[in-house]
From TrEMBL:
Protein source organism: Sphingomonas canadensis
Official protein name in the record: tRNA threonylcarbamoyladenosine biosynthesis protein TsaE
Keywords: ATP-binding, Cytoplasm, Magnesium, Metal-binding, Nucleotide-binding, tRNA processing
Family classification: Belongs to the TsaE family.
Matches recorded under Pfam families: TsaE (PF02367)
Subcellular location field: Cytoplasm
UniProt keyword Nucleotide-binding, yes or no: yes
Lineage, uppermost ranks: Bacteria, Pseudomonadati, Pseudomonadota, Alphaproteobacteria, Sphingomonadales
Length: 148
């Protein structure tokens, strides 16, 4: 299934809708080129869960944690762009943290295609008119919650 996102506001709104169905233990994997809207989706999700103000991109921190009381439940916003080898990600403890947190992961392909097979994989592509197309790979754990 492909969804067209007209602009950054549409990407933000998609993130807000994801927040309504996401829960701790889930992984939402966001792929696409620089500037495609991955962080806009993450910011919409975080805002809908209670974050006041704009979430910074975790590009340099790699993992930006959020949690109660500011958010409804713990969320780790992860940006793997600077990860060069999958082994580097093991040090981040993401699999352990997943037990009680939602993982929102930008650039998941840095860990290899087989990582987080149960994740909702959303891939963004830029279109000539400036909009974005979003393609979802929906695992069984998400079938009752997607499309949103």
């Amino acid at each position: 299934m492909t969804i067209i996102l007209a602009d950054a506001a549409a990407s933000h709104a998609l993130g807000e809708r994801l927040a309504a169905v996401a829960r701790p233990g889930d992984v939402i994997a966001l792929s696409g080129p620089l500037g495609a809207g991955k962080t806009s989706i993450a910011r919409g999700l975080l805002a809908a869960l209670g974050l006041e103000g704009e979430a910074p991109s975790p590009s340099f921190a790699i993992v930006q944690p959020y949690g109660p009381p500011e958010l409804a439940f713990p969320v780790l916003h992860v940006d793997l762009y600077r990860i060069e080898e999958p082994e580097e990600a093991e040090e981040l403890g993401l699999d352990e943290a997943r037990g009680d947190s939602l993982l929102v992961v930008e650039w998941p392909e840095r860990l290899g295609a087989g990582y987080w097979r149960d994740a909702l994989h959303l891939t963004l592509a830029m279109r000539p008119d400036g909009s974005r197309s979003l393609t979802a790979a929906v695992p069984p754990a998400w079938e009752a919650r997607w499309p949103i």
